[in-house]
Amino acid sequence: MSKQNIYDNDTFFEGYQAIRKNERNANNLFEIPALFSLLPDLKGKTILDLGCGFGVHCRKFAEAGANHVLGIDISEKMLAVAEIENSHTNITYLNLPMEDIDQLEGNFDLVISSLAFHYVKDFSDLITKIYDRLNDNGSLVFSQEHPINTCHAGGDRWTRDADGNRLHLNLAHYSVSGERESVWFVDNVKKYHRTFSEIINILISAGFTIDKMIEPLPENKILEEYPEYRDLLHKPDFLVVKAQKLKKKD
Amino acid sequence: MSKQNIYDNDTFFEGYQAIRKNERNANNLFEIPALFSLLPDLKGKTILDLGCGFGVHCRKFAEAGANHVLGIDISEKMLAVAEIENSHTNITYLNLPMEDIDQLEGNFDLVISSLAFHYVKDFSDLITKIYDRLNDNGSLVFSQEHPINTCHAGGDRWTRDADGNRLHLNLAHYSVSGERESVWFVDNVKKYHRTFSEIINILISAGFTIDKMIEPLPENKILEEYPEYRDLLHKPDFLVVKAQKLKKKD
């Protein structure tokens, strides 16, 4: 069973819900602004959100004028919250692993995913399935953990000075793709490390054209308010990518 | 004066010539194979080699059937060697900084550069000038130091165990683009760090389509013969990129 569902674990779910309720988390401060900066005009569009979680983004897409939003997630618990907190006449929530989108009918103008792809084992298979679900001139916009993050394979991640300030990241095994085990509320959360070139080449091989990439940093005013995010100057946490399925020439 | 010419410094030149004469250096073992793996068929092509040095690549291009190869370099000393060791009826060597290729007449089917772009201060300006010099459906193929390398800003690069084995890279300042000073035979060699996304986005903004990227590793048989290159599993030394100037649709 290659599809990991940590989200329906009670311990994980409660921990995750707590950080997402903190409005000043890293996602809200710089991952989501970067992701949304790459979105096309959503008016009249059909949108597929992979790993939609609580449906917060789905509601934003619907409110921005999307014609229809399909939010899928492997976690029934997450979707139960989504149905209560973020329902909308133009949104459908569906309990489906993103690895199974070849089972869906119909195509989309935009496929979006926030911080979920690093849990997927077979990235090439996923990207091919996304390409097949997109209309011509459709876009894929996704964020994931940065490859400099996902390469971590245990041990201390940072070297600190006597005051606990982070001096540098302890980078190892960057060139070794594959599974990494980590602890995130629960033990044995599996993530998959892929190098930068691997991510890019898989997208291109599937037929996508790379449109833009962002390694987001907090704006200066956020750095002043939250000096702990200065560590991101050493190492970005996230990678955000926009790719397009350009219409083939006749 | 933004165009750096370390190569005509006597100390640098002699040190550089010595490592390049060692046929088993990192360039020959995995940078050059990766670079050449991205080249199109060279028969009948016009080629511009930016930072051609001793002209070793230029001769290979000419021998592979290129119609004409223009090798440019900022270093007169390098070109003097090129004229002696790698002359060919289809090659012209010219003493010109790559930042000045807008002064050239005529266009090229292929622009290539090996390990020189990280010395260029204004990457965006260079890439725009390259785009302007390429024919429709022409390609740019280049290698440079890997962004995980170029970000280094002094201090120990590696943390080692008691036996001197490299445990991990000390990664810092990745997200801070700009000038880095380093020592390579001589003091104060200036390199310019750019993040992955910056390199990609500058290429795309200039009009290029990204075709493939490689973060080269030595093959297993080389790792067996030269175990010191196992460190590359922690951190690749080089980044190799192929980008295309696709003909605009009518």
TrEMBL record, chains A, B:
Q: Which GO terms describe its biological process?
A: methylation
Q: What is its EC number?
A: 2.1.1.222, 2.1.1.64
Mind listing the GO molecular function terms for this protein?
2-polyprenyl-6-hydroxyphenol methylase activity; 3-demethylubiquinol 3-O-methyltransferase activity
The protein's matches in InterPro entries, at most eight in alphabetical order, are given as: Methyltransf_25, SAM-dependent_MTases_sf
Query: What keywords were assigned to this record?
Result: Methyltransferase, Transferase
Q: Name one Pfam family in it.
A: Methyltransf_25
User: What Gene3D superfamilies does the entry give?
Assistant: Vaccinia Virus protein VP39 (3.40.50.150)
Tell me where in this chain the Methyltransferase domain is found: 47-138
Output the SUPFAM superfamilies linked to this UniProt entry.
Answer: S-adenosyl-L-methionine-dependent methyltransferases (SSF53335)
Question: Which PANTHER family has this protein been placed in?
Answer: TRANS-ACONITATE 2-METHYLTRANSFERASE, TRANS-ACONITATE 2-METHYLTRANSFERASE-RELATED
> What name goes with this protein?
Class I SAM-dependent methyltransferase
Give the organism, scientific name.
Streptococcus caledonicus
Q: What is the lineage of its organism?
A: Bacteria, Bacillati, Bacillota, Bacilli, Lactobacillales
